[in-house]
Amino acid sequence: MTRCFIAIDFPEEIKEFLLEIISKIKKANPSENLNYTKKENLHLTLAFLGEIDETKIEDLKKAISKIKFYKFKAKFSKLGVFPSEKFIRVLWTGLDSEKDEIFELRKDIEKVLEDLNISFDEKFKSHITLARIKFLHNMEKFVENIKKVNFAEKNIEIDRIKIKKSELGENGSVYSDLINIPAL
Length: 184
Known about the structure:
Cyclic Phosphodiesterase, Chain: A, alpha+beta, five-stranded antiparallel β-sheet, 9 strands, 29% helix
């Protein structure tokens, strides 16, 4: 079994921008000890697949590579938390695209997954994990503080998607690309 997800990777300049946001979050919440995402692991998750049987990986790669999409621009949106402000486990940000291209891309991915009979979380919201949270000293203050974190609008061109493999190691997850699918 291989733990997989479908994602949009970022160039170095975008990862640096996200590290700046993380730095602002740290400054806004100095008493909280969050498990921040490492620079090399910053990406937008389009679909988390979990454990996939090895025999389905090649079919998945072939089917996802047939998805046709054009390059598009997106910009970073607000900060948010999962699953709720009363029980926080993930701090995230997202991307908004002008013509909802991310939503359309996700629909195309879901169709492929359904056709291959690969289960996925239909309620899943595409996001960029900035931090994982086990415990907060003051949840209300944390939520209040992250709502105050400002970041300049930053645009990004989306020109590819990837199927990524996730391996849990001693120092956290290590991601590697299974396939890189360029836009048209």
